[in-house]
Amino acid sequence: DGGITQSPKYLFRKEGQNVTLSCEQNLNHDAMYWYRQDPGQGLRLIYYSQIVNDFQKGDIAEGYSVSREKKESFPLTVTSAQKNPTAFYLCASARASGRNLNEQFFGPGTRLTVL
Amino acid sequence: GENVEQHPSTLSVQEGDSAVIKCTYSDSASNYFPWYKQELGKGPQLIIDIRSNVGEKKDQRIAVTLNKTAKHFSLHITETQPEDSAVYFCAARGLISSGSARQLTFGSGTQLTVLP
Question: For B109, which of A4, A42, A101 is closest by C-beta distance?
């Protein structure tokens, strides 16, 4: 089956610890995205990548880091510098970006709780 | 950067009635407007989208209208069914807050409940 997978589904971490969320896609999409979703709010863009080995900050990149070493993978690290990390994190991918307007496909999400 | 406002935040309708959700956007250069449906604990799924060169698009019970002059777009669901109950998000592809690129900015969501 083609699609986007995120793991784990639920994640708990202690304050002060870094944690990495996994996102993998087998859709052969060039672009990948990370969003944060808080209750009663829309999705906010953290980071995005339009091509391997390149990524850009979104609206709320502070306290987060990413890498894009492979086309299929776009892991997100939530660092201890992120002041309010408890949220639902969504990964998405799209066939292309830039001037092309293509549908973003979303993964099932990871719910991160900081204890 | 782009700012998208969505109303109402909650909407309850009787099964069979129509539901309308409205969004406004700020960036007049925004050119792509998708609508997503999100069920509890899952990722959003695209249900319909519209590009800026089109005023209306329909897909079975779902339709979207776009008014570029007024910078607003709406989702219309007719003959609602209980399985339509979910959170619906609008989005607009405009400049993000850093002003460096065009990406999707989402509205805050509408919780639609269809009562049987």
Answer: A42
Instruction: Give the DSSP per-residue string, chain B.
Output: ---EEEE-SEEEEETTS-EEEEEEES-TT--EEEEEEE-TTS--EEEEEEETT-SEEEETTEEEEEETTTTEEEEEE-S--GGG-EEEEEEEEEE-TTSS-EEEEE---EEEEEE-
Q: Do B51 and A40 touch (CB under 8 A)?
A: no
- Calculate mean pLDDT across residues B10-38: 96
How high is the pLDDT of residue B113? 98
pLDDT number for residue A6: 96
Confidence band for B15, pLDDT divided at 50, 70 and 90: very high
| Count of A-B CB contacts under 8 Å | 64
